[in-house]
Structure prediction request, 337 residues.
Amino acid sequence: MTDKTRLYSGMQPSAESLQLGNYIGALLNWKKLQEANDAFFSIVDLHAITVAQDPALLRSNTRRTAAQYIAAGIDPSASTLYVQSHVPAHAELAWLLNTITGFGEASRMTQFKDKSLRHGSDSVTVGLFAYPVLMAADILLYDAKIVPVGEDQRQHVELTRDLAARFNSRFGETFVIPEADIVKETAKIYDLQNPTSKMSKSAESHAGVIWVLDEPSVTAKKIMRAVTDADGGVVFDRENKPGVANLLTIYSVMANRSISSLEDEYAGRGYGDLKKGLAEVVTGTFGPIRERVLELLADPAELDRLLAQNADRAAEVANVTLAKAYDRVGLLPRPRR
Ligand code: TYM
Prediction:
């Protein structure tokens, strides 16, 4: 047992590489928070399959996502880094929570509505509909107090809070009510070609998506081609200069510098110089991560061993909460054999 605050977050293994928004909006924050907190980080493969995935690719992407967590600085001996499906309690608690979630309540989730539109109503499944309930189960199983995520997950954490409070009031104190931890400045990183839309793994075109594992030359080219404006001034103005504001945000976080010091440095120098500087910072950060990921992937048995060990640690915590919740609801305890 530890008296550190419990923290929970996760990412979907839904692409061969994480994108810059995942790195800045989530991973960087996780890395900072893991030291002072008792952190659980999952690779949410059960969430990923709520839209169609190729099985071989899903397996490979799950290992690749784990390798990216580690290469980006998540320490699997200090934090618990595991694959969601390795801990069956997630699916089991999700079922209990499904039974107290309103149909209307789930229908109001904006990510569900967006994804339904994107994938077309024929391929929208009950799994996709129940996605946020599974996410609530993830968080509640670990008594997490803090959930570091990007802005797009705020509504899901709100639902988690509602479900926890509802369960507690119906069945007695069982779950800790969690809180989203969203860093305002970096809560939403935008697509470089379309700087009013969120950067996303599932964007239609990848021209404005920076992948953590891309070749540095590809990344640099995408940054040099980022959409800006005709004004020419390197000034942070989200409303009128969304492209430049996005580049400055990324630069500021990745170089650990203030926006105003960047505005000063690039005043009068134009966007080409700003982009060149940013490309150096991004490739300088992602280059070593990429190399470390390739090293980790070269030894899948070791990676699997690590994930199994961490899943055991996660299951120990999760099973206690699940047993408590089953009991509260009135499910008959399974006789010991
Ligand atoms: P996923 O895989 O879509 O995203 C992982 C994390 O990256 C953040 N993010 C961004 N942040 C800033 N700008 C962006 N452009 C950007 N794109 C993505 C997301 O907000 C997220 O924090 N449902 C979750 C996965 C999940 C989860 C959980 C998270 C499942 N169970 C329990 C926390 C707790 C998701 O969509 O991840």
In short: The longest helix spans residues 300-329. The two ends are 28 Å apart (CA to CA). The mean pLDDT is 96. Strands lie at 5-11, 37-43, 80-83, 146-148, 179-181.
